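In this section we walk through a basic example: taking a raw amino acid sequence and producing a predicted 3D structure, encoded as discrete structure tokens. The instruction is simple. Fold the sequence below.
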Amino acid sequence: MQKLNTSYSQFYNKLNRRVGYVFRDRYYTQDILNERQLYCCLRYIHNNPVKACICKDMWEYQYSSYNEFIGEKMIINNQGIKLLFGSIQGFEEQFQFIHASMR
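The resulting token sequence is shown next.
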């Protein structure tokens, strides 16, 4: 991540004729140890554009994976869905349920 951040910062600064940090804090990771944390993480990620006032609802943000889960799948495949939700059958209801508290 450090190499990625450094490369991007150099590119961004050169493109915008600026110097200094592009990102305020260091990259931070936290292990996801159980299903509950995974679902909280998905909700958090999908709600970021709403919280930042970029859009009103999660499904309105075009760069979000939210629509991949509930609509046509172009990036997320059945193997990824099975890995995240344990099963392909009924995952849509489970996905909607974990996001229901955000609306």
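Looking at the output, two observations stand out. The chain is about 50% helix and 0% strand. The two ends are 32 Å apart (CA to CA). In the next section we compare this with other chains.
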